[in-house]
Design a protein that fits this description.
Elements (H helix, E strand, L loop, with lengths): L1 E7 L8 H12 L3 E5 L19 H13 L3 H14 L4 H14 L6 E6 L4 H14 L3 E4 L6 H8 L6 E3 L7 H9 L10 E2 L34 E4 L2 E2 L21 E2 L2 H15 L3 E4 L8 H12 L6 E6 L11 H9 L2 E9 L3 H7 L5 H13 L3 E8 L6 H13 L6 E6 L7 H8 L7 E3 L11 E3 L5 H18 L15
Bound molecules: iron/sulfur cluster.
Iron/sulfur cluster binds next to loops.
């Protein structure tokens, strides 16, 4: 039996973790598998925030202004430009379609696609190619948690089924049934034209799949070898009103692995790939404080030291594992870069977001992480529904106060994601947000567009420019020398 997997994710700095798991599960069962990674065919990746030139503040502001402009012509021009350059846009389509044509020349028994929903057009082409050869195609990924999206994708010619949820526990059963033309429709998480939307239950035994196999990824096309790893799925907090990560397939409910297999996986991957750079992809690595602390102790005893990076949440628990002592121990074990979500420097906005963060504690964390010689990256948001120009200026002040301790800021515009608490609130409590008009679900991009009239007011535009300028000032700095290998990775 032969299975081909097409990886339509945007990880330009390291392999896709879920694909590594699928490959390992298939190979353990003796199934022949081939991976198609677009990086191998000249499709360029999309790195996270990197060092910026000074002029970037102007282009970023122009982009912001075009996005919030009330003139529909301006927004249309922006959408056209964006469509050309976005992942999976026009420039990627030809290359990926040609690569898949070569991949299916040997007619695999099953073709799997792991994709973000923005790759719909490319998947249409792939479905068309596979239907001509009678190859069953299953598409899955974190965006397939909304019934409307799954329905739309099933209308695409050549897509046999869409998968929603974590597939590991049903994976072999699904592949065997598809390859042998057996009954696959009763498998949890499978959605077809005949079977309604459903989602597979979250995997509870996280240590049951074998360690991920990344041997099929085009290592020569990455700037360096960074190995992805996850110690848990979901987030211990899980309450932020805007967060779709805890609503999508692998983020539902918090589950954690044991420390011993995590350390063993790191040593195995070190040996397999001769690599010493690791990125922990947990939404919040300090969710399980015992594991987080154990990791710092365990990693400092490794025969071959590693460098690592992770995301944490500066929450309000008495013990959140982020004291100076904890951070110093993590730094001594190789933690060179840490990411956390500030989102806003306004207590009022943070309360509305249910972020579970106090600014005084966030300040202390940033100072301690910097003192422990860890490169600090922050994510910020602009345009949360209750945010005013004054709130934006409070974020500017917070960043300015910590300008010397933060090395990168990723600034996002508020995205209204389906099934999040704020999305329901915007629909159900319209009177609370008279400045916001919510539109219909954009099925291709998996978001619900909105127009926030406040964001295009003169006061808000002025505050946005100040925020973008402050972010640019921080992002122009070089990274801490020891963290440079992770530039753009996280
Ligand atoms: S802490 Fe992070 S992952 Fe957890 S709910 Fe909030 S935004 Fe989502």
């Amino acid at each position: 039996m032969k299975v081909s997997i097409v990886d339509l994710n945007n990880f330009s700095r390291y392999p896709t973790l879920s694909i590594g798991y699928f490959v390992a599960i298939l190979r353990k069962e003796g199934i022949d598998v081939e991976v198609c990674s677009p990086l191998n065919f000249g499709v360029h990746g999309y790195p996270r925030t990197v060092k910026q030139p000074y002029w970037k503040r102007f282009s970023e502001f122009l982009n912001y202004w075009m996005a919030v402009s009330r003139a529909s012509l301006v927004r249309r021009i922006r959408d056209t430009i964006k469509n050309w350059y976005r992942p999976g846009g026009n420039s990627d389509q030809i290359r990926i379609t040609e690569a898949v044509e070569a991949l299916i020349a040997d007619t695999p028994d099953v073709l799997l696609i792991s994709a973000y929903t923005m790759y719909h057009d490319i998947c249409k082409n792939i479905g068309h190619l596979c239907s001509k050869k009678g190859i069953p195609v299953v598409v899955g990924g974190s965006g397939f948690y909304i019934a409307e999206t799954c329905r739309e994708w099933l209308e695409t010619c050549g897509i046999t089924a869409v998968y929603s949820g974590e597939p590991e526990q049903h994976f072999i059963e699904l592949i065997s049934a598809l390859a042998k033309e057996g009954d696959f429709e009763n498998i949890p998480g499978v959605i077809t034209r005949n079977k309604p939307f459903n989602t597979a239950q979250p995997l509870t035994q996280l240590d049951s799949p074998p360690f991920p196999d990344f041997s099929d990824f085009p290592w020569k096309n990455y700037p360096n070898k960074i190995i992805p790893i996850m110690t848990g799925r979901g987030c211990e907090w899980g309450l932020c009103t805007f967060c779709s990560d805890v609503k999508t397939t692998s983020g539902r409910t918090f589950r954690s692995r044991d420390l011993t297999p995590v350390l063993s996986e790191i040593q195995t991957q070190q040996q397999r790939y001769q690599a010493n750079l690791f990125v922990f992809l947990d939404l919040k690595l300090n969710s399980n404080v015992t594991l987080w602390r154990g990791l710092a102790s365990g990693l400092s005893k490794l025969e071959k030291p590693i460098k690592w990076t992770a995301s944490v949440h500066v929450d309000s628990r008495n013990e959140n594992g982020l004291s100076f002592h904890d951070l110093k121990k993590a730094s001594d074990s190789g933690l060179v870069r840490i990411t956390c979500g500030l989102e806003s420097g306004s207590e009022s906005v943070l309360r509305h977001m249910a972020k579970g963060v106090k600014l005084s504690r966030m300040s202390k964390f940033i100072e301690d992480a910097h003192r422990a010689e860890i490169s600090v990256r922050i994510t910020c948001m602009i345009g949360y529904p209750n945010e005013t120009a004054k709130d934006v200026l409070e974020t500017v002040n917070f960043l300015r106060k910590h300008r010397n301790q933060i090395e990168r800021v990723t600034l996002n515009r508020f995205a209204n994601m389906p099934k999040t608490p704020i999305e329901s609130k915007l629909r159900e409590a319209e009177k609370e947000y008279p400045h916001i008009a919510v539109k219909e679900l954009d099925i291709s991009n998996g978001i619900i567009p909105y127009e926030n009239r406040r964001m295009s007011s003169t006061a808000f535009l002025g505050a946005a420019y100040q925020l973008i300028s402050e972010v640019n000032t921080i992002n122009r700095k070089p990274l801490l020398e020891k963290a440079k290998e992770f530039e753009g990775a996280f």
